[in-house]
Amino acid sequence: MLKFLLPKTPLLLKTALWHTLSMSPTSSKWDLKTEITVNMLRDMMGPNSKSTPISKMQRLTCKDTGVKGKLWVSKIKLDVPEEDDVRQLVFKAIEEMGTGEEQWTKPDSQPLEAEWDGYRADAKDDQPEPTVMSEKDKYDNLMKETKSKVTILYFHGGAMYLMDPATCRPLTSRLAKETGGRVFNVRYRLSPQGPFPSALLDCFTAYLSLLSPPPGAFHNPVPANEIVFGGDSAGGTCCSALLQLLLQIHRSTPAGQTPTVKFHGKDVEIPLPAGVALTSPWLDITRGLPSIESGIKYDYLPTPSQTDKREFPKCENWPANPPRADLYCEGSALTHPLVSPLAAQDWSSSPPLFFSVGEEMLRDEDAVLAQRAVAQGVTVVWREFEAMPHCFALLLDGLKGGDVHYEEYGKFCREVVEGNKLENNGVFIAAKTLQRRDLDVRGGLTELKEEEVKECMQKGRERIERKFNRRQDPSSERPML
């Protein structure tokens, strides 16, 4: 830690001084801890930072550091179904929703790895998990502390190529506490090793595994009306893409019939979940909308103009072989609705959607989708936090606004599972006072028109493809965290 912090001492001192003297542009909105955290992240990810090989970053961010504190964790690994029906259903939806020009590789199915996370009320903050318990015993103890029917199917963030379920355990423990329920925390395949649609196939398999437990599962079947999809950042990509996949399966099923799929020897119905709860979701893989550049005042993510000048050092995982323009997918697939869910036009019949966002670089794409969904009859709950960066509640522990985020998130999950009728509503929450101001989710979130959005996404795709064609080295396109 000292080796890392010592070179940053001038930055830390300057940040602290400017904040104390109220000379930084954000000192009126942020406390000192937020100011230091965001500036450190900017320095680590900014134009002068040193690029690290993807394989090294994955080794650093996918470590399981163990379980301790107020958390139950029960790990599970479920076999691949003998049938190929799930896989083929995903491929069919991709083809139906595309233009026919997209290039993508059909991945194999893999065993599903996940963990059940729950709140452990009586544990001390530094208390390790019991070492003599089996995973089944841990699950049974987790269930004893579950107080509601809420099951969150959670997909972690990390730009589709970083992170692991273990890294977000403090988050999932908090969600379990706020909802009184439990979290099914999924390990989906990371890019670039598992490009689109590998992660989508894993996410769909996880949902089916909740609905109809495969051999070796600890849980009983979970009704769809007790399941909420949850995810942050790239996990929000997974949530919204999985929802679109389900909506497409329903659209392609004859009216009056419920879609089914053969899964571990059973015909399993595929209903929609109770709701979808999104935290700073990444909905446009092209990173083409205006706030990606204009939202930098309160954010720490690198802009496209910064990442265009960078290259990932070569490693065993990147560049891909054969080469492709983006870590997650081929350039031709960047605007496919199951890659960039912002490109999906039809959200009608969707269950209620919850958005928690800051004044961040992804705000435009989130606002466009929320407003589009409302116009199509979908219930949307929008919570926007003044001056907050991307995934602020996950990064800034102890922030009062973060507590509000978790409270609102938990309330939404409980209400949709309990069957309470929600109304469209939007709230803007002030940074320090937490005062609330109503927002009109029908037309007051963004002035961007649909044609502008489509044009921005197309330009974003062209930017990525142009760089790839120019250098034949797509590693210069560094995705956001």
From TrEMBL:
Any GO MF annotation of the entry: hydrolase activity
SUPFAM superfamilies documented for this protein: alpha/beta-Hydrolases
Annotated keywords: Hydrolase
Stored InterPro entries: AB_hydrolase_3, AB_hydrolase_fold, GDXG_lipolytic_enzyme
Keyword flag Hydrolase: yes
Ranges of residues in domain Alpha/beta hydrolase fold-3: 152-393
Protein name: Acetyl-hydrolase
